[in-house]
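URGENT: need a sanity check before tomorrow's submission.

F., can you look over the Beta-lactamase record below? I want to be sure the sequence and structure line up before it goes out.
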Amino acid sequence: MRQKILTLILLLLLFIGHTRPAGAAAPSLPQSPVIKSISFDASPVISLAQGSDIWVNTWADDDKLYTSYGDGTGFGSGTKLSLGLAVISGIPPTISGANISSSTGQQTGDGPNGKKASGMLMVNGVIYMLVRNADQNGNQCQLAWSADHAKTWTWSSWKIAELGYCAFLNYGKNYSGARDGYVYAFFSNGPNAYNETSDVVLARVPKEKITDRASYEFFSGSISSPAWSAAIGSRKSVLNYPKGINRIDVTYNAPLKRYLMTNRSRAKAGGENQFTIFDAPEPWGPWSLVYYELQTSTSNLQWGESQHIPSKWISGNGKTIYVIYAGNDTLKVKKAVLQTDGNPPITSTVAPTVVTPPLTLKPGDANKDGKVDGLDYVVWLNNYNKTVTAGASVGDFDKNSKVDGLDYVIWLNNYNS
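Structure tokens as predicted:
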């Protein structure tokens, strides 16, 4: 039967002339024009609160970081929460944390069945929290806010059904140093919080009207000509990254005048399992690549569930930062040094992790070894005529959710390349 299928495919090739499908390979992002490399300490300087992840945070008016953890007990013990609240004091390497009990804020439920914070921001003494899994099934975003430092929360009556992962842009202490009178929110451009997409979209709202859904506008212009629309259907991407966009967070590095976006994608919908940092001169871009690291684990090992750069912990020259991440379901902090044209090469006893462009994957390369060969054909053949969601890794090279003859054409056109 398979031999007959291959014969039919070869006959099809005679008619289509071995034409490469349009868009089979996506261009890579340019390297950052400002940040030339980034060097992380080999080991975290802090490891606390074992058994909890997420740790989205904001720099508050009392000089503390207010944070939210997920699927754990935070800095204490007792009931496992889907959304717990806490406060962090100090500066690395010396910090401490304490849970905040809030009957109106904390949530129960495991994984996608429980609401979880994905964005946190203080503006004028009020903490705003963007929450994913608002439908308690992994979809939708919702807003909550607290005027008493995370003890009491009010929840919006509205939800954003079109977008499932949501994050605020953080500036300085209590939103000091903001570029204008707006608050900005970034979204992975899809309704589900767990499936990666290829695009980041952006919204803004006057900082006095954050709780008013009707006041939100979505970026609908271009980098050179920003425009905004109240219609969510008019939204346009501010960053396209086909390797995968999912867990994002954005912080303004004021000394360097660059926006830093962390991104963690775990290849749940055909993307690439990677941790990435991007930068840009404006919230809408143009975004460039600062750091890329392929991950071998899709669980919470290595860089874990999500990553955040607290603005409080950015040095005076902007070249030393700390990254909070949930490695192995634990609050961990790593120090990083950014090299720009204005500082000398980094000297350290720890070998620096220099940004190198990721391996450019070729169409037809199912096993991602940089070659299109017989092993990739075997992957295609084993999945032929199946409906799939994992993309090229299972032979669906055109990512139309079906392994078929067109995917074979892509493999054949790139064989031995």
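My own read: The chain has three helices and 23 strands. The longest strand covers residues 197-206. If you see anything odd, call me.
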